C-alpha cells in the first residue's frame, strides 16, 4: 500500500489526514519508531483491557519525508486486515481506537478531514 494524503479505516465514518504542522519529534514523542527504510511506524493494541494483548492492532506508518501515511487495523501478525467495528468486542475496541487517534490529533500528527 502506498502512502496516501488521507486514509479511512474500514467501518469508520471519519477520514484522517496528516496535520500540516506534523514534526518528526512529535512522532517520536508519541512512540513512533523509525523503520529500516526511515519511515515512522506506530503499532498500538486496540484491546481496552490490556495494551499488551495484541489480538487487534492499529498500525500507522508515516513517510520519512512526512508527505503521506498509511493506517490500518490488523491482526497481531499484521498480515490480515481486521474490521474492529464488527464483532463481539467491537464497542471496547472502537473506544480504544478513538482514544489512540485522539491522542494523535491532540499532538498535531493527524487531523480529521
TrEMBL record:
Lineage: Bacteria, Bacillati, Bacillota, Bacilli, Lactobacillales
Classification via InterPro entries: Amino_acid_metab_prot_put, Lp2179-like_sf
Entry protein name: Cysteine desulfurase
Domain of life: Bacteria
Annotated source species: Levilactobacillus koreensis
Pfam families xref list: DUF1831
Amino acid at each position: 500500500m502506498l502512502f496516501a494524503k488521507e486514509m479511512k479505516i474500514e467501518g469508520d465514518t471519519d477520514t484522517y489526514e496528516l496535520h500540516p504542522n506534523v514534526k518528526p519529534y512529535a512522532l517520536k514523542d508519541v512512540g513512533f519508531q523509525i523503520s529500516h527504510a526511515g519511515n515512522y511506524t506506530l503499532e498500538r493494541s486496540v484491546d481496552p483491557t490490556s495494551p499488551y494483548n495484541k489480538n487487534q492492532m492499529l498500525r500507522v506508518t508515516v513517510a520519512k519525508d512526512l508527505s503521506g501515511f498509511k493506517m490500518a487495523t490488523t491482526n497481531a501478525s499484521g498480515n490480515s486486515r481486521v474490521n474492529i467495528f464488527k464483532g463481539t468486542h467491537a464497542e471496547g475496541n472502537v473506544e480504544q481506537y478513538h482514544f489512540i487517534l485522539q491522542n494523535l490529533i491532540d499532538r498535531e500528527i493527524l487531523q480529521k478531514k
